[in-house]
Amino acid sequence: MKILIIGSRGFIGSHCVAYFESKKFEVWQADVNESSDENFYKINRQNSDYSILFQEHQFDVCINASGSAHVGFSFENPSKDFELNVVNVQKILVAIRDYNPECKFINFSSAAVYGNPKILPITENTPCKPFSPYGFHKLQSELLLTEYHKFFGLNTCSLRVFSAYGPGLKKQLFWDLYQKSLQSDVISLFGTGNETRDFIYIDDLLQIIDLVIEHSTFQGSIYNVASNVGTTIAEAAQVFFKLFSSNKEIVFNEEVKVGDPNNWLADMEILKGKGFQPQFNLHLGLKKYVAWLRENE
At what angle do helices 282-295 and 172-181 cross, to 10 degrees? Predict the structure, then answer.
């Protein structure tokens, strides 16, 4: 199988490259960052164009792991966030429609499309009420995938990723804990600590991508990507520091960070019906993440 991974130098993209190469797929990469890897296309950061990729090759699958994944950035620069998370997706869809219409297209969306839902667990049919530009832009990208399936017959699928983590991730909660721990023994975090997230380790996310490629109808399909386990931020931080550095004190400032939800817990019944079985709980996943941090200190 021939697969194209756009955003191949990023956190999820780089793991996709390693995973599908291990499965003996013919893997091609595209990214704005340089690479000496074979089968690599450099994308122009200022004026991205994906046509040549699909003119020169016929791919069975294209995974778009590019774009911005930072809620705060979307408030600071909504125009750039829109370009990265909506305009680029539309450009990829046009290129596939024009040159490679049989290609299965997987785009990474986000649980941010749900906003701050009142009822848990969150199913794929939970009303979308984003409360950040990032969440709105991810929802718009999903609508593009629905549009290009409905009107042009493309094979499209959106993955609503909750709180993914693992080796290589240099942002979000666990990276923030690591960075702050290098500066102080007292770690200050937003909120109360009682907020909940549904964490998914990168290897379980890759298992989901594999299942989706094999079993999804690609009819503008949408799937939650999580573990179906709710963990408070306080509990997650405690697990991290038990593994990394036990002499740290965690303090919550009671302030709500703009764009952050209170509680997330995903319903995973659809993907469980396709064979998904999480292999990593938070302790096992963080053990691997901490080992990576120590190797790269």
Answer: 50
Going by C-alpha positions, the residue among 24, 110, 12, 26 that lies closest to residue 61 is: 26
For residue 152, the domain's CATH number is: 3.40.50.720
The count of structural domains within the chain is 1
Q: What is the pLDDT of residues 222-281, one digit of tens each?
A: 999 999 999 999 999 999 999 998 789 999 999 888 888 999 999 999 999 999 999 999
In a domain, 248, yes or no: no
**Neighbour tally for 24: CB within 10 Å:** 8
Whether 187 and 248 have beta carbons less than 8 Å apart is answered as: yes
Q: Which of 67, 8, 11, 66 is nearest to 38 (CA)?
A: 8
pLDDT digits (tens, 9 = 90+) for 95-134: 999 999 999 999 999 999 999 999 999 999 999 999 999 9
State residue 142 phi and psi, 5-degree precision: -60, -40
Residue 215 and residue 271 in contact, taking contact as beta carbons nearer than 8 Å = no
Residue at 179 is within a domain: no
